[in-house]
Structure prediction request, 66 residues.
Amino acid sequence: MEHKQNSNIDRVIDRSEFAELTGLSRTSVWRLINSGDAPKVVKINGRIIGFRESSYIEWLEKNTYA
Prediction:
Protein backbone atom coordinates (compact mmCIF):
# COMPACT_ATOMS: atom_id res chain seq x y z
CA MET A 1 0.00 0.00 0.00
CA GLU A 2 1.41 3.33 -1.06
CA HIS A 3 1.02 6.29 1.30
CA LYS A 4 0.52 9.65 -0.41
CA GLN A 5 0.76 12.89 1.49
CA ASN A 6 -2.41 14.94 1.26
CA SER A 7 -1.57 18.49 0.18
CA ASN A 8 -4.85 19.70 1.73
CA ILE A 9 -3.66 18.96 5.26
CA ASP A 10 -3.22 22.15 7.28
CA ARG A 11 0.13 21.60 8.97
CA VAL A 12 0.93 22.97 12.42
CA ILE A 13 3.74 25.49 12.88
CA ASP A 14 5.35 25.31 16.33
CA ARG A 15 6.35 28.38 18.33
CA SER A 16 10.01 28.19 17.37
CA GLU A 17 9.19 28.02 13.64
CA PHE A 18 6.71 30.89 14.07
CA ALA A 19 9.45 32.94 15.74
CA GLU A 20 11.87 32.10 12.93
CA LEU A 21 9.35 32.93 10.19
CA THR A 22 8.39 36.26 11.74
CA GLY A 23 11.80 37.26 13.08
CA LEU A 24 10.28 37.73 16.55
CA SER A 25 11.93 36.67 19.78
CA ARG A 26 10.45 33.90 21.94
CA THR A 27 9.35 36.58 24.41
CA SER A 28 7.60 38.59 21.69
CA VAL A 29 5.79 35.46 20.48
CA TRP A 30 4.70 34.73 24.06
CA ARG A 31 3.40 38.32 24.40
CA LEU A 32 1.43 38.04 21.14
CA ILE A 33 -0.16 34.80 22.32
CA ASN A 34 -1.08 36.22 25.74
CA SER A 35 -2.52 39.42 24.28
CA GLY A 36 -4.61 37.48 21.75
CA ASP A 37 -2.82 39.12 18.82
CA ALA A 38 -1.20 35.92 17.50
CA PRO A 39 -2.85 33.45 15.15
CA LYS A 40 -5.27 31.06 16.83
CA VAL A 41 -3.33 28.64 19.04
CA VAL A 42 -3.63 24.87 18.57
CA LYS A 43 -2.78 22.67 21.56
CA ILE A 44 -0.93 19.52 20.51
CA ASN A 45 -0.96 17.94 23.94
CA GLY A 46 -1.03 19.38 27.42
CA ARG A 47 2.16 21.39 26.96
CA ILE A 48 2.88 21.93 23.28
CA ILE A 49 1.17 24.63 21.24
CA GLY A 50 1.40 25.71 17.64
CA PHE A 51 -0.47 27.51 14.91
CA ARG A 52 -2.26 26.14 11.85
CA GLU A 53 -0.42 27.23 8.73
CA SER A 54 -3.63 28.69 7.25
CA SER A 55 -4.15 30.81 10.41
CA TYR A 56 -0.52 31.98 10.24
CA ILE A 57 -0.89 33.02 6.58
CA GLU A 58 -4.14 34.87 7.32
CA TRP A 59 -2.52 36.58 10.34
CA LEU A 60 0.53 37.52 8.24
CA GLU A 61 -1.63 39.10 5.53
CA LYS A 62 -3.51 41.17 8.13
CA ASN A 63 -0.30 42.26 9.90
CA THR A 64 1.91 43.06 6.92
CA TYR A 65 2.10 46.66 5.83
CA ALA A 66 3.20 47.80 2.38
